Amino acid sequence: MEKKRFICPACGGHKLIAKYEAKYIYSYIIDDNSPGTLNTDEFYPFLYDKREQTESKQYVECTGCGAQYPCTFTTDNKGIDSKALEKAMTLKP
């Protein structure tokens, strides 16, 4: 039988999910034609002129008991470092 690598310290559960919450401010320059210099005929909210991240929270959450464990994800596209997950799971919620 395969041993589960990551276990919730609070309840012993194995159903964990990594979450990254972020808050951004999107800015659109108002010109004569439409909001934003990148929008011409129609307004598309994804065509913003400036985006600023104001808040972020990264954590691992147990879907069984709801406990949350702080965890810093890698900032490149490689995903979550397994050592960071192991460190997070040793913390108390």
How many beta strands in the DSSP annotation?
Answer: 3
Q: How confident overall, as mean pLDDT?
A: 79
Task: Going across the biggest sheet, name each strand in turn.
Answer: 1-2-3
> What is the chain-wise order of helices and strands?
EEEH
Low-confidence stretches: none
Strand percentage, roughly? 25-35%
What is the CA-based Rg, rounded? 20 Å
How many helices in DSSP terms? 1
Overall geometric form: elongated
> For the report, how would you describe the main beta sheet?
3 strands, antiparallel
Structural class: mainly beta
Measure the end-to-end span.
28 Å
User: Could you estimate the helical fraction of the residues in percent?
Assistant: under 10%
In short:
The protein is 8% helix and 30% strand.
